[in-house]
Amino acid sequence: MTEHRSPDAKFRTSLLEENAGPATNPTNNRTMGEIIAARFSRRGFLKGSLAVSAIAATVSPLALVSADQARAAEGSAFAFDELEAGIDDKHHVAPGYDADVLLRWGDPLFADSPEFDPTKQSAQAQAKQFGYNNDYVGYIAIDGSAEHGLLVVNHEYTNPHLMFPGIVKIVEKDGKKSADVAPLSKEQVDVEMAAHGGTIVEIRKDGGKWQVVRDGKLNRRITSNTEMALSGPVAGHDRVKTNADPLGTKVFGTFNNCAGGVTPWGTYVMAEENIHGYFSGELPEGHQEAANYKRLGIPEGAYEWAAHYDRFDLAKEPNEANRFGWIVEVDVNDPTSTPRKRTAMGRFKHEGAESIVAKDGRVVFYLGDDERFDYAYKFVTSGKFNPNDLAANKDLLDDGTLHVAKFAEDGSVEWLPIVFGQGPLTAENGFASQADVLIETRRAADLLGATKMDRPEDIQPNAVNGKVYVMLTNNSKRKADQVDAANPRAENAFGHIIEIAEDGGDFTATTGKWEVLLKCGDPAVADVGATFSTATTANGWFGMPDNCAVDSAGRLWVATDGQSPKTTGRTDGLWAVDTEGSARATSKLFFRVPIGAEMCGPLFAPDDQTAFVAVQHPGDGGEDWEAFGRPSYYEDLSTRWPDFKPDMPVRPAVVAITKQGGGKIAV
């Protein structure tokens, strides 16, 4: 019989991102903080937009002259009345807007799907219902319509203490409470596996409100057991062969799909992020993957899947973990198609895969590696996008060049190609082929001298102004002697946003320029060093930028992850951030989530009349029990959002935001 977890373990899946750990990057590569610090010291007094940032770092925006505030407000690209920041058990949106729950965990997706019953969960039911912890949200138009299309949604991970009744017991010792969590049964693990992956579902706007088309012929669930193909340079390599797949070409499932993307040719891409939490056990002594797995934090063992399935036990299947950490591409027009893991795009803890067609027709994807002291990447296809023959683009992602970013203190950025045989990526350093380089993308980037970043998450190209926005969530482990130009703060609790301008406005360029758009946190606290504009109100500042979106007008919207009563005194939410003119670095709060939740998505419909947002892990207090007042688990939740029924647990959900009376958002 498996023993209960130690009370010290508490809710381990809530800590999966934190358990990315002390950072696994062993190099002496310069950190972004060192580069930013050196750059600022070279400049002395800052000029232009950064001068506004320097002022805001030391003076409360409420104390600055109203004339400056008015000037910035007049130049803002956003027209809406700002929402008040705060914390409660509900979601809130700016006045004049509706925020309607569209899809909840467990909602049926097919004509024969069972209705959701949290006390009678099964893998068979979950595989026909909307999955758990919705993250990335994408929209693929049907017949070019902005009001009828496919919604594609990632399901990143599961929180069993919020999902399953009867598994948590609160124990108190020496006046401190902790959670004794019972081991999951095989049936509960099967539900978890079915709740991961992604959803493809037809939606339609009717009378100004979005509805799910339950019998949509393209509706599909992708899970941790869906058959997938490895494609590109790694397919068939010895390091991805297993007992179940001696050819090294067929993988079952995908998991921890965080942000993602939709390609110009209308496919759905899913990014596999914190894969380390799903593996347990120990590699055989002296196994060749030991250093590779250590660099990725494998095994971490937050999930109990190895107790029931040998493929997640490294002692039994030492190569299985090499089959995860990729970008997965799904053909949404064929529900029977086999998703493909596009190995040419590298293996790491992927956050996002946002793309743009460059001037010469090649397609560029920007990719973050979401861990402290890891890197920002971009992938440039070798082939060109053919808008007149979408089928001709089906294998563009199998051939291209992956690059990693190196930021310099003079404000330049260089994109270094990650190509076998070039520079240090040779047999002398343990690489025998491009497949080896891609399996160990992090080590290859280490050797190239890439800049160590503060958790690079979503990276979004902007087709309107030609810029690229990099969300850097935080890095509390960065020490004072590790700051650099692009990561300017030690113990960076609140994160920052970098803006890149590729040389010549060409997204395929290997060089460019960069600026810090925002250093996040409360600008009223001088020691924080935040750089919001003077027009940003007490409601408008934020910390922990995570996901972002650029609407069709080229305006930047930022979603946050990690705000709480303890860290910022507010919940996560969606902020509108000006990037141009006198209002640059001004931020306004548009939507906020209930207590314990993270803000994911966001996504704007093609006509900008709907913003889709994903409310992830509502009611999850994590380990921040003192700030939340008490632990939150199935029987004693801090919120029962969105149903607010005593017999229903908290349910992650996608929300559709529309303007009352219709029209474009924030116009």
From TrEMBL:
Signal peptide: none
PROSITE patterns with a match to the protein in the record: TAT
Cross-referenced InterPro entries: PhoX, TAT_signal
SUPFAM superfamilies registered for this protein in UniProt: Calcium-dependent phosphotriesterase
Start and end residues of each stretch annotated as Disordered: 1-30
Pfam families to which the protein is assigned, alphabetical: PhoX
Biased composition (Basic and acidic residues): 1-11
Descriptive protein name: PhoX family phosphatase
Species of provenance: Mesorhizobium sangaii
